[in-house]
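Suppose a colleague, Dr. K., hands you the sequence of a protein chain of 240 amino acids and asks what its three-dimensional shape might be. Before reaching for any lab equipment, you can write down a predicted structure in token form. Begin with the sequence itself:
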Amino acid sequence: MEAGIFITGTDTGIGKTVVTAGLVAALQQQGYNIGAMKPFQSGAVESNGRLLAPDLEFLLKTTELVADGYDLMNPVRLKPPLAPSVAAEVEGVEVDIDEVESAYNSLQQQYQSLIVEGAGGLMVPLAENFLIPDLIKLFSLPVVVVARPNLGTINHTVLTVKVARQLGLEIIGVIINGLKEEEAGLAEETNPELIEELVDIPVLGIVPYREAIGDDPEEVDLGKLIIENVDLEPVIEYLD
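The predicted structure, expressed as tokens, is then:
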């Protein structure tokens, strides 16, 4: 396997980017030369005549990553907030997987290891006959699954892990993200143990919700948040 990990999720909008940025920041704080990649960004926004990737912009604000190599970190940017394959069809462009692989290989030469963030959930189509699992296999990376904390997450997480395994992917563990501690009930308390029992992989940590992340992400030390709430040892095993 390559040095690094791939971040996927049980759904869209569950904080994969927050977890990705937090892991990058945490590992940078511990002295690792960590790079990041968001190969596919739909819902890109235009600013000053340039198309920007919101997820990559968040990473640049909250980690020590710099904008040099922007097109390597995010080779595919599409405006429609749709599955990348659909967004590309709407825009009338063809996704070049070879270009994505070339960008990945270039980044691998620059960093000790990479944290790569997917798009949406596990079975999102990126190009014709090319889904997220195909990208993970192309990059030869193990997977961390990001899940939400509340009711329904057991079903989504178990399905994601079981399908990933059936497709031959290696799963490191699950990170539960966005726990609102003041609202947590019995479901939030029991979900982690049940997930571990049902799929026999560890829940690496539970990341609490922080409202400031959405309002002013630069004011939140995401690295510290991850270090305090996530077991990084299983991830570090895949960095060299």
